[in-house]
Amino acid sequence: MNFRNLVAAIAVGVGTLSTAVVAEAADKKVVVAYQTDALPSSVAIANGEFAKETGYEIDFRRFNSGAEIFAAIASGDVQVGYVGSSPFAAAVSRGLEVKAFYLASISGIDEALVVRNGSGIESLNDLKGKKLAAAPVSTDHYQLLALIKSLGLTEKDVQVFAIPQPEIVASYNRGDIDGGFVWDPALTELKKNGKVLVTSKEVADKGAPTFSAWVATSKFAADNPAFLKGFASVINKYYASFASDKSAWGPDSDNAKSLAKLLGGTADQQASALKNLTLLTPEVQASDAWLGGGEKAGAGKILKDTASFLKEQGKVSDVLTNYGAFVTADAVTGVSN
User: Fold this and answer.
1) Which of 277, 234, 275 is nearest to 251 (CA)?
2) Which of 128, 131, 223, 313 has CA atoms 20 to 30 A from the CA of 270?
3) What is the pLDDT of residues 8-67, one digit of tens each?
């Protein structure tokens, strides 16, 4: 090979390598949707640790509800998102292919029905004839409807408005509604002129459990297992810190200040909201009770029960035979505190 041909060959090789590198870089881009819930792992959104750990260029986008996130996933704009089990059940019942790979929290006191001072509501027995609200197709909406049903009431007895959380706060403050089933920051706002009547955990104990989870499109999950594993490891790092070092998450902590800057509100409000979470360790998540076990997965059963209820309410038209295919323990298996 003469010198000219050698140079040409090298040029072709470098060009091919450059194309491969560019292609690989392009592949390592992902859009991740989050909400305003106070989660320890949201600090990693603010400081860039998710991107650093996974090696991906991550475009984090904030949404007001899980229903909005699933709409964005369906359009192809989002590949990974933080959602609640009710919009999750509705989305997959309508044919969307996604998988939950990490449970952010389960039914606790971080979501609750708050009733306004002066509304005349002192107990659950006082709900008949009242006006209540929850975000559309949210876990709160699902639990509010389930609560009403458990009391032997219907939406003819209790007016339920499905409206976004900012509108709930505004309507509540104007006195247009008597209460709202909400999460933070709306939860903190409503409690300023009201009281918690029932928590998400209490409704779960009545037979309507919920969870919030990080989900990925089935295609993205299949093509990017290392990303999901890395993403899960970052979440677990912050959850473990929250569980073992309370001083690092107090109202004066850098973590609380970071959450306030990212999500809104004050550091004190964020620190308070974190205390309301019910979190699961990776080992528990990987068990059959939650993400493990394939068709026997507990999270899959919750999705099916939720879908069945939503069908009764006319919110979805079909209930699938099994929902275990929409959860996976792969990202949390082998991860520990």
Assistant:
1) 275
2) 131
3) 443 444 444 333 333 444 579 999 999 999 999 999 999 999 999 999 999 999 998 999
